[in-house]
Amino acid sequence: MTHPVRLTILGPDSSRNSVLPGVLLDYSERGMRVRIPAQVESGAAIRVEMEDQMLLGEVCYCQSLTGGQFALGLMMEQSLRNLDDLSRLVQALSGESLEPTPAA
Predict the structure, then answer these.
(1) Which of 22, 40, 57, 81 has CB atoms 3.0–4.6 Å from 34's, for a disulfide?
(2) Which DSSP string corresponds to 28-88?
């Protein structure tokens, strides 16, 4: 199983958050292993976006791989699934139109 992910290293100053492309290598109920092109410190807070979900967690370990790649072990603490549905609900509740209105 290899799926593209987007990993954001979170910090106290959100304007300095690092965003990295990655590949999901392994996934379990409480964690995952991803490959990214940069080293990340253990204990760093992270956000992982993939398909229709967003997960929040912490880096447990960072292992060096060949070719300047790194494998991160992540412990996931929170998850939001069905983000497309959530976005449509927010738009509906705020009164934004979801579908173009047909011309009269």
Answers:
(1) 22
(2) -SSEEEEEESS---TT-EEEEEETTEEEEEEEEEEEE-GGG-EEEEEEEEEEEE-HHHHHH
Report how far apart, in Å, the C-alpha atoms of 23 and of each of 36, 38, 104 are. Answer: 7, 12, 48
- pLDDT tens digits, residue range 15-24? 667 899 999 9
**What tens digit of pLDDT does each residue of 30-41 get?**
899 999 999 999
At 101, list the tokens.
């209105």
Residue range 40-58, pLDDT digits in tens? 999 999 999 988 788 899 9
Q: Is 5 left (phi over 0), alpha (psi -120 to 50) or beta?
A: beta
Phi, psi at 92, each rounded to 5°: -65, -45
